[in-house]
Amino acid sequence: MAKKEGLNISELLAKKEKEILDAWTKAQADITAFKKGLITEKQLREESARFLGILVRAVAGGNLEDITAPEYDEVNKFLANFSVSRASIGFSPSETATYIFSLKDTVLRFLQDEFGDQPAELSKAVIGFSMLMDKLGLITVETYVKAREDVIREQQKSLLEISTPVIQVWEEILVLPLIGTIDSARAKQIMENLLESIVATKSSIVIMDITGVPAVDTEVANRLLRTMQAAKLMGAECVLTGISPQISQTLVHIGVDLSGVTTRASLRDGLALAFRKLKLKVTKMEV
Amino acid sequence: MDKVPTLKMGDTLILTIQVELHDKTAIRLQEDILERVYDTKPQGLVIDVSAVGVVDSFLGRMLSDTATMVRTMGVETVLVGIQPEIAITLQEMGLELKGGAFSP
Fold first, then answer.
1. Contact of A58 with A75, CB cutoff 8 Å
2. d(CA B27, CA B6)
3. Which of A207, A249, A253 has the most B C-beta neighbours within 10 Å, making it the best mutation to test the interface with B?
4. Most buried pick, A113, A175, B5, B66, via CB within 10 A?
5. CB–CB of B70/B40 below 8 Å?
6. Would the CB atoms of A249 and B68 count as touching at under 8 Å?
């Protein structure tokens, strides 16, 4: 039964491919964003023709249900590429999905013309085809979201790289300005960067500045402490600076033991301390 | 409560508590002290409690905490003017001032 109805639809699609394409392109002209100049009518028509061709070939076997079947590979691939390219030129996911749904509307109208006199056949065909198109529509949304997520992941990665700079401010003095929340991934990155820099610059003092860290909880504090312990093992002494009144209150209230750590209120104080430890003196030039 | 009267002598910030402290005012005082230390950047902080007659467990803990907080900001605290009876109370409560030193 399903086989027959599937064949009906695929026959119809193959037979009326040209008319469907015309109607579909026309339907899209009204709804899609190519009014905004994101895409030309010619491009749209070429794209639609390609997709329709691929779809006709996919449904030729009569399979309207399982879109994971091998004959749908090409459809899936096309939709994935299509969704990604649409996303990159600024289409919203609903606009991209509407592309598929507008084909559904168009074809349903053709189905009605074809099976208008056989209600049972018509409803079967409509349900089968609707379900297929809904699934395909969902694929576009899914790939769209996935493409977005890839972008976000990429940005996160680059953010992680630029967010943990280690600066050598003087011979043997490193400054590690921390900005933003510190999660476990960042803490790991911070530790690796710091330890590598200590080796590379042969530094003996590290100033960790947490002025830009909005909130310090036990977890963040523990991560910082671990980093400092690691630095100590490399022979570098750590100074924790940028402790505002609020942060100092939090640290004491949550009971973080900072007795083994040198702490200072501001980066300036930390730098002054580092100079003193290295027996350096900053004086005004005599002119 | 008014702001705490503070006096900066050289690198030292001197602070006198002149009123009886309740729980609420004590917390305000603690915030005040920290702000003042942050702004004036002293080397050391002296808190004079000679005018304080009663120290309960909350106040004792608050003083101890304040000293630790100030310590995290890189400043040493000295608590001065502790009355004998207060010393006894603090001792009986088992409080120790981890972040600072005492002076009579």
1. yes
2. 17
3. A249
4. B66
5. no
6. no
Count how many domains chain B has. 1
Q: Say what the ipTM of the complex is.
A: 0.73
Same domain, A182 and A222: yes
Residue A186 forms contact with B (CB below 8 Å): no
At A60, list the tokens: 């030729």
Print the domain residue range for A246. Answer: 167-277
CA distances in angstroms from A34 to A18, A25, A89, listed in the order given: 22, 11, 11
CA atoms within 13 A on the CB side of A2: 9
Q: What is the pLDDT of residues A206-256, one digit of tens each?
A: 999 998 888 888 888 888 888 999 999 999 999 999 988 888 888 888 888
CATH number at residue A107: 1.10.490
CATH assignment at residue B76: 3.30.750.24
Q: How far apart are CA A244 and CA A252, in angstroms?
A: 12
| A233: CATH | 3.30.750.24
Q: Do A253 and B65 touch (CB under 8 A)?
A: yes
